[in-house]
């Protein structure tokens, strides 16, 4: 049995009760069997919106379902959003609602609680210009102006389009949040691995460097500090070739032995045998290596 489609909540803020009746009819359509009631609603729609209602197809909302909460003043609309900031994806807000606050102040109050709500400001040409609205609310990407008189098809198109956009953005946000959580876990794992690697370095008597596959120095034990004449902070982040001239990236994925000249600022040039040992659980796995350095003092 198919799942019921999700109801998406819409807030309508308008001081005219007839607007709420018609918004309900446009966005939450129900079959009307009483011809007198149907005629009355059609007359009301024509009077408010200036057009005769057209013949409507059976699926007006492309399979989407909406629910509507009504507020008859700006402050009531703000209070509904404050009570449940994540409930609404869309708000239709009238510009003029005397004697209370106007649509501009209402939207500011709504956005102070839920800044991502898609908002349609319903205004007559004589109310505010676009420049005046933009100066108050900014050129917000979630703001749309709907001029009065408007038609049912405009309201339905706005609601269905914004619903699809909201669903898409919600999916992106969910994916980003999951990636952030995975990144935190991965960073914690890397940090733990580095701590274990440094502890292992400290237990080895011979000079050792901790490297990644690209040859970046991630750490060094005290014997390496003494050999190269610098502390770990100055070695960290350098290319291994800056101290082991003949060890070049990319480093091998399996254990290997090489000979290399050393760069030691406080001593004559030295040569050494360098043993590279991967720290990964498998041969060939991406990870870190330990470079054990055995200096050839007879060279």
Automatic annotation (TrEMBL):
The keyword Phosphoprotein applies. GO terms for biological process: phosphorelay signal transduction system. Keywords: Phosphoprotein. CDD domains: PAS. Residues 193-250 form the PAS domain. Transmembrane segments: none annotated. Gene3D superfamilies: 3.40.50.2300, PAS domain (3.30.450.20). Residues 9-163 form the Response regulatory domain. The modification 4-aspartylphosphate is found at residue 94. Pfam families: PAS_8. SUPFAM superfamilies: CheY-like (SSF52172), PYP-like sensor domain (PAS domain) (SSF55785). InterPro entries: Bact_response_regulator, CheY-like_superfamily, PAS, PAS-like_dom_sf, Sig_transdc_resp-reg_receiver. This is Response regulatory domain-containing protein.
């Amino acid at each position: 049995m198919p799942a019921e489609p999700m109801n998406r909540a819409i807030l309508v803020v308008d001081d005219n009760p007839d607007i709420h009746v018609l918004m309900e009819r446009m966005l939450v359509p129900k079959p009307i069997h009483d011809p007198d009631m149907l005629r009355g609603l059609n007359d009301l729609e024509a009077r408010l919106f200036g057009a005769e209602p057209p013949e409507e197809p059976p699926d007006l909302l492309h399979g989407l379902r909406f629910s509507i909460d009504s507020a008859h003043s700006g402050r009531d609309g703000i209070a509904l959003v404050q009570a449940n900031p994540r409930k609404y994806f869309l708000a239709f807000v009238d510009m003029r609602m005397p004697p209370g606050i106007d649509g501009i102040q209402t939207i500011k109050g709504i956005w102070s609680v839920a800044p991502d709500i898609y908002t349609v400001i319903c205004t007559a040409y004589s109310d505010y210009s676009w420049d005046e609205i933009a100066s108050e609310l900014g050129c917000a990407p979630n703001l749309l102006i709907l001029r009065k008189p408007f038609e049912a098809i405009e309201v339905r198109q706005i609601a269905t389009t914004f619903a699809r956009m909201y669903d898409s953005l919600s999916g992106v946000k969910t994916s980003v949040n999951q990636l952030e959580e995975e990144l935190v876990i991965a960073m914690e794992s890397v940090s733990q691995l580095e701590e274990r690697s440094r502890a292992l370095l400290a237990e080895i008597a011979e000079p050792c460097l901790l490297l990644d596959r690209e040859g970046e120095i991630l750490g060094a034990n005290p014997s390496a500090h003494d050999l190269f004449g610098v502390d770990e902070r100055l070695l960290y982040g350098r290319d291994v070739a800056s101290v082991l001239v003949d060890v070049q990236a990319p480093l091998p994925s399996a254990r290997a032995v090489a000979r290399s000249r050393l760069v030691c600022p406080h001593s004559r040039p030295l040569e050494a045998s360098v043993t590279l040992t991967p720290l990964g659980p498998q041969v060939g796995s991406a990870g870190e290596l330990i470079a054990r350095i055995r200096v050839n003092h007879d060279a």
